[in-house]
Amino acid sequence: MNFSRSHDTKSEEFIEHYLKFRKKAAPPSQVTAFLCWPPAASVRLYRRLSSQMVPLCVHNGCSRWPYPQPPGPDEMALFLVDGACHCAISLLDQANASRLFDPPNTWLILHSNEDEVSQHLLNDHNLDTQISIEGSSDNDLDHLQNQDHKTSLDEWDKKEESGPSIKMGGSYQPGDIDPRLEESTRLDVHKWNALMNGLNLHVGTQMFLGIQTLDGGFLLVEVYRMGRGQSVVWQLFAEWGSQDVIRATSEPELSRRRMNLHLAPLRVVVVVTNNDTLQHFYDIHNKHIDSISKMGFVLARHAVEMLNASLVVRYDPSWGYMVNGSWDGIVGYLQRDEADLGGTAVLYTSERAKVIHYLLMTTPTKLGFVFRQPPLSTVRNVFTMPFSGTVWISSAALLAVCGLLLYAALQWERLSGDNMEDPKVNDYLKSMGADQKVSWSDVVLLSVGAVCQQGSPIESRGTPGRIISLFLFIVVIFLYTSYSACIVALLQSSTNSIKTLKDLLHSRLDLAVEDIIYNRYFFEKANEPIRRAIYQKRIAPKGSTPRFIKLEEGVAKVKKGMFAFHFEVGTGYKLVSETFEEDEKCGLTRIPYIQVVDAYLVIQKRSVYKEIISVAFRKLQERGFQSWAWNRFYTKKPECISRGSSFMSVGLIDCYPAMLVLVYGAMCSIGVLVLEILVYKSFIGSLLSMKLFVSLLLVAAVIIIVAEAFPSSFKEISEADPPSIYGRVLGFISARLANIGEVFQVVWRALSDTLAAIFSSRETPVISPRYGGHMSLLK
User: H/E element holding 88?
Assistant: First the structure.
């Protein structure tokens, strides 16, 4: 077993103080030491570090050095290497092949004044052998600088030939090596520089050399590379001397020490879906087109300028989706190490998170179905809404009481005989039908006529009857006025009943989606039942073309009403502000569909630029650049400042319940006429009282009309929780009336056949003046 030829305790003290220094900023989770020290020195080092509560694993002697293992995720490992060991360079080559120089790993290589073994290894090592970095040769960089940008989207797929389209800055010139390294140490700087150039070092590498000075102290030097194809940078980081305290000579935070990349190239890929965007990345011309890309590119450009790097831009029409087993778009560029940063924010998915790293949120993107709230009459029967259930019941009870009292007064007037002494008046009253008997149907017609502001063929000639009629008309006129005023307001009102995706699925609104690649992906991949049903039934039903349309077309349909359009609101609201009338901007509602968080800035997995890019973008946030860019390229939701300033026209759908009552009333009258004819022709009148039969028929007709014209009232009562006895009865009745249409069809066919047979054999019916010309039963 070979050990170092000489060893002093200064190295042990320096390592101990270095760990104390590191623990103040970012303490390592574990320390792995590869040493060639005497056993006693290794034991002393183990004891020193154990007192600092630092987990340590010491491998002493080259024959005991294992293959360096990468630490677990999110672990900050420190690798300590004795530069005097003859197998140190082999260890560095193995670590280089395993990418152990990537953050957050830290390396500390010790070099003492007596390290003859290190000098021997440097002389024997083939310094001409360089570890290649993909796409990082100087010729490639010069080619990237001189490459003209492309404006045709047809050449996006030629990734290897397309090159960057924008290049800012020139070539990087490495700084001079600190002369103190040669004056105060015995380090062969040029040979060590050639060795470091053969390693895959980068701007995120934390490689430190602890170089012993001639006076017994140590210089802590960090070695890294600014970018691909650049020379290695040597920067003095700290000093350790007789005071036993490490004194930092530069910023302790890596992100602050390396914010200047000296024009090293930084590759950015941006999503472009329209050729026009290439000419308007910085202005606000058609800012609703590729807004997320324009905002992301402007922020990336400011961040690159803050880092003093050269911007190399590529374009692609896709954010990144799995196609034929491989990723395309931004995700594909980052996965294949063809880009360092995504210039367009990317929505989060678990599949993408496995191959790229989501750094921070830069674009507060909001997606969803946007629509104008439909008129209230499209979802509710507005003719039942002016009064509450209690008012309806009270009004009906009042009409019933007035009807009973009026019937009693009219009957008393008929029974009291003629009270008029003037025979001419009596004759006139008789001609008006005042001497005729009063039936319940007459009283019902009088009450309904009062409600509907209509007259009646029957009038009371006595004081009691007139008083009752007067109070009836007074009460009804107040009810009529209140009802009419409420109806006018309700017909101009919109509903807020559509609040969830389930409401949207079962609504009368037509649905469509903006034709953009991420919408197609997320809608086709939706697996939640409601979202899947919306896509399969409302967006892309079988046998029809999927409803993916342009943004301008969708916003125009939203303006007309009864249409829900899914788009990115920051871009769509620009068209809404420009094309909608002021009153049309009121009532806009958004229901989210895509179950993702806001779009995030993305970089490579284990990116070497992770820390400095994160700091640069957070500075842009703190200084207001992100808010400025959002306000520049996005539009806020239009404000409603003139609600109720205009009126909507009443359509057929608004009058549907009223027309339904009219239609059912006409059908009932025709049915009664047919039944009168049927009863008269078949001599059923002798067996069944016509008045009773007609009364029962009218009651059934009223129940049918109410159930059909006002189904919401029955539904609300029957679905009450907990259900009352009254609710259960109405629920039973409404359920039985659900098939009333089929029953009417069967009865109508039977009546038609019977009438055809009767009219061919019976005599012509007699017309009775008692019923105003209607058919009646006369024997």
Answer: helix 88-97
The alpha carbons of the chain give a radius of gyration, in whole angstroms, of 45
Phi/psi region, residue 644 (left: phi>0; alpha: psi -120 to 50; beta: rest), is left
- What does the pLDDT average to over 516-538? 91
Distance in Å from the first CA to the final CA of the chain? 136
Span 345-391, pLDDT tens digits: 999 888 999 999 999 888 888 899 999 988 887 777 788 888 888 88
Query: Is 9-131+176-252 in CATH node 1.10.10.10?
Result: no
Share of the chain above pLDDT 70, in %: 71
Q: Is 32:86 a contact under the CB 8 Å cutoff?
A: no
Map out the domains of the chain as residue ranges: 9-131+176-252, 134-166+259-364+598-636, 371-377+495-597, 388-477, 656-771
Phi and psi at 240, nearest 5°, equal -135, 125
Q: Could you tell me how many residues make up the chain?
A: 779
Region of residue 327 (left: phi > 0; alpha: psi -120 to 50; beta: else): beta
Residue 70 CB coordination number (10 Å) = 13
Q: Are 242 and 218 a contacting pair, CB within 8 Å?
A: no
Q: What is the pLDDT of residues 635-671, one digit of tens each?
A: 888 888 766 555 667 777 777 777 888 888 888 888 8
Fold entry, domain 371-377+495-597: D-Maltodextrin-Binding Protein; domain 2 (3.40.190)
Rounded to an integer, what distance in angstroms lies between the CA atom of residue 57 and that of residue 486?
83
For range 490-515, the mean pLDDT: 88
Residue 547 has pLDDT above 60, yes or no: yes
Q: Could you tell me the CA-to-CA distances from 576 to 1, 219, 370, 593 in Å, in that order?
A: 80, 64, 11, 20
Task: At 322, list the tokens.
Answer: 């799995």
Task: Annotate 514-546 with DSSP letters as a single string.
Answer: E--HHHHHHHHT--SHHHHHIIIIIIS-TTS--
The CATH-assigned architecture of domain 134-166+259-364+598-636 is: 3-Layer(aba) Sandwich (3.40)
Is it true that 9-131+176-252 and 134-166+259-364+598-636 share their CATH fold?
no
Tokens 């924010």 map to which residue?
345
